[in-house]
Structure formats: C-alpha cells, structure tokens
Amino acid sequence: MAAVPTPPPPTEELTAPFLKMTTSSLHEEASMGVIAGVITLVFITLLAVLVVIIMYLYKNKGSYHTYEEPEADGSVQLENLPSKGEKEEYFI
Question: Which of 31, 35, 52, 91 has its CA at 20 to 30 Å from residue 67's CA atom?
Fold first, then answer.
C-alpha cells in the first residue's frame, strides 16, 4: 500500500477576506468600554450644565434693579395718550 499524499495547506490568496474572523482581545474590549464610558460621562455632564443654565435663566428672567428714582412725569405721559374713541393721524 502506498501512502496517500496530503494536500498543501491553503494560502492567503485562496481565502476570501470576509471569511477571515478576527477576535478582539480582552484588552481591546476594555478600551472600548472605557471610551464609551468617558463619552457617556461627558454627554451627561454637558446635559446637566445645560439644565442648570436654563434653570438660572428662567428664575432670573427680567429681574434687574435700577437704583434711580422714578421720573415724576411718567404718569403725565400716559394721560396725554389719545383715548380709544379718538382717531390718530399718521403721516407716511
């Protein structure tokens, strides 16, 4: 009986690139987890800062104080306005 010769092992050229299976190491998976955690933390921090800014602007909306005395003739200006029955004349 004669020995049957074994075929040569397949070379890289004969295999398709999509058939190659790459397994990621534990180190690569841990790095991806750390990166995802940092991105999530930054996003949550920015969102919290935005909420704080919106709350501050909402509470302080239109609240400014002047230390000047109010003018006395302000009420006189309101009295000089025409009433609803009178027509105003506009020049264009």
Answer: 52
18 within some domain: no
d(CA 26, CA 38): 18
Residue 59: CB atoms within 10 Å: 8
DSSP 61: T
Output DSSP code: residue 68: S
What's 16's DSSP letter? -
Confidence (pTM): 0.42
Task: Count structural domains, the chain.
Answer: 1
Does residue 46 lie in a domain region?
yes
User: How far apart (Å, rounded) are the C-alpha atoms in residues 48 and 51?
Assistant: 5
Average pLDDT, the chain: 75
Domain containing 56 equals 35-60
State the Cα–Cα distance between residues 6 and 69, nearest whole angstrom.
106
